[in-house]
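Subject: Protein record for review, amino acid sequence with backbone structure tokens
Concerning: The relation between a protein's sequence and the shape of its backbone.
How to read it: Take the token row as a discrete description of the fold.
Enclosed: The protein record, placed directly beneath this head.
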Amino acid sequence: MAEIDARFVKPENFVNRELSWLEFDYRILEEARDKTIPLFERLKFLSITASNLDEFFMVRVASLKDMVHAGYTKPDMAGLTPEEQLVKIGAKTHELVTLQYSTYTRSLMPALRQNGLRIVGHHEELTQAEAEWVDAYFKANVYPVLTPMAVDSSRPFPLIYNKSLNIAALIRKKDGESQIDFAMVRVPAVLPRIVEIPVSEERVVILLEEIIERNLSALFLNCDIIAAHPFRIMRNADLSIDEEEAEDLLKEIEKLLKRRQWGEAIRLEIEDNADKRILKRLRKELNLQPADIYEVNGPLDLTFLMKMYGMDGFDHLKTEPHKPQPNPAFLNDDDIFTNIRKGDILLHHPYESFEPVVNFIKTAARDPEVLAIKQTLYRVSGNSPIVAALAEAADNGKQVSVLVELKARFDEENNINWAKMLEKAGCHVIYGLLGLKTHSKITLVVRREEDGIRRYVHLGTGNYNDSTAKLYTDCGLLTCHPQIGEDATAVFNMLSGYSEPLQWNHLVVAPIWLRKRFTRLIRREAEHARAGRPARIIAKVNSLCDRDIIAELYAASCAGVKIDLIVRGICGLRVGVPGLSENITVRSIVGNFLEHSRIFYFENNGMPEYYMGSADWMPRNLDRRVEILFPILDQELQEKAMHILEVQLEDNLKAHILQPDGSYEKVDRRGKSPVGAQDTFCGEAKAVVKAHQALQDPVNTRVFVPIESSGERE
């Protein structure tokens, strides 16, 4: 394959991956600041920015610090060394945190108060009746759980758990002559952090750390509390596994999970105006630099707002939840295998229910004609019906093979437990592949039928997780296409053994074949454009930060290909650069659901090709993971896929458009009808079901026509 033109890979043509990640957090924060959004939805968005930032530090910042410690100075595709990246990240993150807390204190807290919910900012604000109730609550529920920790010559500085909330204090014995000592109390995670005070006419809540700080003297009797401040630290949680040396991958990961809690401290959060002596002690003990310290005006760890979102009595301040609708293909009494034999079925979650996927595996587990079930699992829910069905299938004597990816970050412990359970049930469990993460989403069911063996396959863009399927937008294909069935068998033979097929019928698999296929598809569009033939690319991904793919897109743009990219998060591409990317647009949609599906369209001179898959355009997906790209072959389903892309490109409510300077701006919709892609898909899914019901009972059911792409919620 031809080399990439050097002019397309200059550092100035790219955006640093980490800074682009932070830009995504700014887009989420913009939703939290949008006063047209229901108040409790704004709380949720602010909470998401906090949890995103936690992961960013534990993984991305931690990785950069490791590089600096190792003396690694190679610049990234944007020309920044790890040390330069950390400096820029520090400046941008401090600005982001300041804006987070300005949003919380100046906008959200007053708005909550106006709507009948008061959050006690500091325990000194309590009324006498509230204070008496809080003190009684502390004595009965909190005090017995706490462990005060003094630090002196005989008691060393304690190990502080990653992400734990603590209170640091300066204490001195009441004799007035003793020296000032440092002490600490961990805020127990086993108790609710949000405590409602039931003695006021209005709804009032206080955070657990404020209750503890108010009653700190009860833990250090005969001592004066000179100063006390909540604090929280973030540690390096980026696991590094030497798989070549690990005799037992499962045991090795179990050991590393314990170490994650004690990795290098990389970030300290503490309330602003904290006593300088406490700050100095924490800096020294945790070996932190000034840039690693975040002094905030408000409560630490804003992820508590997600729990506040779940409080009863405020439904009027939330968006009405969408109930996933049945896919029209299943609005009959036939079993799932019969429905799949009628033709390929494309599912669009969460607008359409994930239940057919669960039912597919449940039915296969109980069907006496099913001989084998094979599946990959990356992230599953805590009480997964899919895992239960796989165990039931093994118990029913079927051949069940499951690849459980133990290296799925922050789900390692959950996946270890599932792997052990499946093994005990009699399933053949594979713990991922050496040096690779298996990120593909595929299920194969082998069934004996009258005309011979038939293979049924599910391929998806998202995880086999029935919980996140209600929150993430994803697509899934159910098919019994013989050639896709052959490819699915080849995938599992490759995963469980060492069998690499000589060729594939329809599936494209990373890390060996996928990069080449994408490169070939992009270059083909460029050839069509140069020849004056119809050429266009539409791609919907979570992240775009692969240098070579971006360079290929630049080359296609220069050839005249119109390229529309829908990129939720990280985007390392620059738009609107003369002689480079004039034909490229990038939009990011941030809405109630997390955009997770990966969809690709290539015009191909009027013979368009549609693909979906598990891979983003990132080096890790193309080179270091097992990923699957699958085609949409049925014309009706191709139209459905194009409709998804077109509505997203029309979105002018939740879409943020990438600007040439790297910033994002909401669409200017002056004079235009509002179009919200997610609202449109919710409405269409409901309308299709209602129209079907009307056809079944034309006398008693009103006829509903599918709504236009108005973006208005029903």
Remarks:
- Confidence is low (pLDDT under 50) at residues 701-714.
- The domain at 510-667 is CATH 3.30.870.10 (Endonuclease; Chain A).
